[in-house]
Amino acid sequence: MNYCPECGGPVARQVPSGDDRPRDVCTSCHRIHYQNPKLVVGALPEWRDRILLCRRAIAPRADYWTLPAGYLENGETAAEGAQRETREEAGAHVTDLAPFGLFDLPHVNQIYLMFRGRLTSPALAPGPESHAAALFTEAEIPWNRLAFTVIEDTLKCYFADRTRGRFTLHTGRIAPGRWVDRAPP
Amino acid sequence: MNYCPECGGPVARQVPSGDDRPRDVCTSCHRIHYQNPKLVVGALPEWRDRILLCRRAIAPRADYWTLPAGYLENGETAAEGAQRETREEAGAHVTDLAPFGLFDLPHVNQIYLMFRGRLTSPALAPGPESHAAALFTEAEIPWNRLAFTVIEDTLKCYFADRTRGRFTLHTGRIAPGRWVDRAPP
Question: Which position among A53, A110, B94, B98 has the lowest Cβ density within 10 Å, counted as fewest Cβ atoms?
Answer without folding.
Answer: B98
